[in-house]
Specification:
Nucleotidyltransferase, domain 5; 3 domains; about 55% helix
Length: about 270
Amino acid sequence: MSAHGESTLAALRARAASAHEAAEWEGLLAELARDPRCGARALACALRKRREALAREARRFEKLLVRSRALRAAGARAVAGVDEAGMGPLAGPVVAAAVVLPERPDLSGLDDSKRLAPRTRARLAEAIRRQALAFSLAEVWPAEIDRINIYRAGLEAMRRGVAGLFAAAPRVAVDHVLVDARTIPGLALPQTPLVHGDALDASIAAASILAKTHRDALMEAQETLHPGYGFATHKGYATVQHLAALRRLGPCPIHRRSFAPVAAAAR
């Protein structure tokens, strides 16, 4: 406390930083409203902006749960979201993930993996693995990609991802699948394709994050097995660095030889 009985600004800032419940926010804002100091007014303004940002995020996140809730209200017992990562790279696997989230997951900041910073993706991936009722990952590597083509390989990875849910968590009765933009062939379950689904549904967004982080880790490991290409940096995508390494070294065993730049480098 100051000599006048007011909390120091440092103490008020510490309380603001640690406030999580609505009652804490309102109590602190009421106290700041009575405080004439410029620093207190600035803190109140920042606190209101932070409260508004958190409220917007809460509303956005609630919208991500609308589709799975509607399916459960219509009788579905467990809804899985499915997405893939790695369709475009010149090297490495395409990876798919299937995720069943609880009814009220605690995953603030959840979004399409492509919109997230790497550290945020990693934090969310850990939280998804911890909270998911079930999740499964599947990989299709270049030899198979070259044999069946990349489009079919992506669908096959997603099919295997859904199949893996039943092995990973047989007690979770998945009976509907939400898919990012496509329909998975050979799937004996009702499924709903959602264009830009990883930005519209929480379970698809969660799947996109698990697929992306898993694939990134695989490609970082390939850096040691196949040095010189820069896989840990570009993850197999057609960057200037990667294309230069391809011309210099030629393709390695994890390159997709059905992709034109790789085929050209192999001649």
